[in-house]
Amino acid sequence: VADSGEHPSLDTSAPAPERVQVKAGGGADYPVLVGPGVLDELPDLLRERALAHRYALVGDARVLELHGGRVHALVESTGRPCTLHPFPAGERSKNREHWARLTDELLATGMGRDGCVVALGGGVTGDLAGFVAATYMRGIPVAQLPTSLVAMIDSAVGGKTGVDVPQGKNLVGAFHPPRFVLADPELALTLPREERAQGLAEALKHGAIQDAEYLASLVASRDALLEGDPTVTAGAVLTSVQVKARVVTLDEREGGIRQILNFGHTLGHAVEHLSGYRIPHGSAVALGMVLEARLGERLEVTEPGTAVALSRAVAAFGLPAELAAVAPLLPPDPGALLLEAMQLDKKVRGGEVRVVLLAQVGEVARTGAGGWSHPVPGDRILEVLG
Ligand SMILES: NC(=O)c1ccc[n+]([C@@H]2O[C@H](COP(=O)([O-])OP(=O)(O)OC[C@H]3O[C@@H](n4cnc5c(N)ncnc54)[C@H](O)[C@@H]3O)[C@@H](O)[C@H]2O)c1
Ligand SMILES: [Zn+2]
Fold first, then answer.
1. Which residues pair with 142 in a beta bridge?
2. For residue 23, which of 241, 253, 245 has the smallest C-alpha distance?
């Protein structure tokens, strides 16, 4: 494992599965198990936390081809039948048409309220299969088995499910916490390297908002993380899940502190949107973090040097740290268009752009009124987009 010196890299010697408990509304707390090989716990967890008359294994065709056979056998080792429900891989499948088709397939199997959905895949699968489970007969259990780093580090925890519509991403959905999450980094060994960097962008965000040491250790472990080393990856997934679990436990539905998870996203979403989604989410968020740190420095909210520190971390993972790096995927002079996109974002209240700003690496700056996001005038935003 490469270690570039002053910062300790992530622990490489702790293969035992770790367990994080996440609080959810109505006492629906759930465990997240993280570790290489933790998938083997699936039958026991299903029996303990999601015993059903029948199971529906939902995943994209690519992931089901790679890992569906093994997971199917593990599910059926509970003694209950399991049907397979593939859909075409990619964000384009996260829509109402696939939600309807999958729902119809479950109805055709005769699944009742005593059924359970097993979601095996990346964030698209977790969101789509989770939304099928959330709505099927007013809600049946779902077990989340994330296979991409985006899903392990971010989307499988927190209970948000949903689909995209022509008007925008994630505009139709529901909160539906899983019965449990099993994050086994051995499943992500088949994930392409560029996809790993996309998920690690959210891990860098977790370090930036809550834990400077974590950010440094991610950079120190970069090579192992990009190669997918299961033990090192497990360490990162565990720390990220702990950060996200802590935040969503305090604020399940995003009225308060959960907003800090949007660091890098106000600008990031605008960049993603303006590129026609050709710039992937993790890349857009990485760039958004650097630009929002620069904005915070200009507003004298963020400690000078923070943006430079973040841009080094982001660049270490081959993620864009400057607008120029993604310019070919954006219209010329994108500043004003980006601002407009930010003003249209669903998180904007009353036309005012609100941005989560750092105090320094590892800490978010509160507003005078104790809020978690700062109202920022458009002309100040334009300054960092020039
Ligand atoms: N619910 C939330 O809180 C939340 C948070 C963040 C992101 N998301 C959503 O997550 C989605 C993005 O997730 P994603 O990047 O995982 O997308 P994805 O599910 O499409 O996976 C990306 C690609 O990797 C492939 N893949 C996944 N696991 C693999 C594996 N182990 N081996 C080989 N290939 C594998 C998939 O087939 C797909 O082609 C977006 O729709 C986003 O809105 C949701
Ligand atoms: Zn994100």
1. 117
2. 245
Alpha-carbon distance 51 to 63, whole Å?
Answer: 24
CA-to-CA dists, residue 326 to 82, 280, 316, 349, angstroms = 44, 11, 16, 28
Catalytic annotation, pick one of 98, 179, 222, 262: 262
The two structure tokens encoding residue 161: 């499910």
The residue behind tokens 């995003």 is 254
347 part of the active site:
no
Tokens of 341: 């996109």
**pTM higher than 0.90:** yes
In this structure, what DSSP letter does residue 357 have? -
- Token code pair at residue 14: 């702790």
Q: Which ligand is nearest to the CA of 134?
A: 1
Contact 32, 20 (CB under 8 A): yes
Residue 363 structure tokens? 């800490």
Instruction: Give the pairing type, strands 363-364 and 358-360.
Output: antiparallel
**Least-confidence region, from 14-23, 36-45, 84-93, 120-129:** 14-23
Residue with tokens 């702990």: 242
